[in-house]
Amino acid sequence: MTTILHLARRADWDAALASGSYRVSTRGATLDQVGFIHASYPHQLAAVAELVYADDTAELCVLVLDREALLAAGTPVRDEDGGGGTAYPHVYGPIDPAFVTDVRTAGFDAEGRFSF
């Protein structure tokens, strides 16, 4: 299993569990607005979190996604340049909660470092 991660607000994830579909691309933007859901590989997530969510006071969580399960269900996942030549996984469709293998609590310490 190739693991990809998506940083989410806990409230958005809870809403997805109720509706059966997660459709948030990134902070403040939906799948419909952006065209894909931003994701990261484990070594990329802290930098993304610190750039995008450092000043967000909402409770955060990390969705652990099974890339192969997404692909098998017909949801494209493409590694694309996220800036500076670094490839990030982009999920081109809604995420069914069944493809989330774990949900981890996430946040920032007093020095602003991200952990999950």
Entry summary:
The chain has four helices and nine strands.
Topology:
Layout: E1 3-9, H1 10-19, E2 24-26, E3 29-30, H2 31-34, E4 37-38, H3 45-52, E5 60-66, H4 67-72, E6 77-81, E7 87-91, E8 100-108, E9 114-115
Antiparallel strand pairs: 1-5, 2-3, 4-7, 5-8, 6-7, 8-9
Features:
ADP-ribosylation fold, 4-stranded antiparallel beta sheet, 3-stranded antiparallel beta sheet, 36% strand
Model description:
The structure is a single chain. This protein has four helices and nine strands, in the order E-H-E-E-H-E-H-E-H-E-E-E-E. By secondary structure, the chain is of the alpha+beta class. A hairpin with a 5-residue loop joins strand 6 and strand 7 (87-91). The radius of gyration is 13 Å and the shape is globular. The model has no long low-confidence stretch (mean pLDDT 94).
Order of adjacent strands in the largest pleated sheet:
1-5-8-9
What CATH architecture do you see?
A: Alpha-Beta Barrel
N-to-C series of helices and strands:
EHEEHEHEHEEEE
Determine the mean pLDDT: 94
CATH topology annotation: ADP-ribosylation fold
Query: pLDDT below 50 for ≥5 consecutive residues: which ranges?
Result: none
Question: In the CATH hierarchy, what is the superfamily?
Answer: Protein of unknown function DUF952
Considering DSSP H and I runs of 4 or more, what fraction of the residues is helical?
A: 10-25%
Number of helical regions: 4
CATH top level label: Alpha Beta
Overall structural domain count: 1
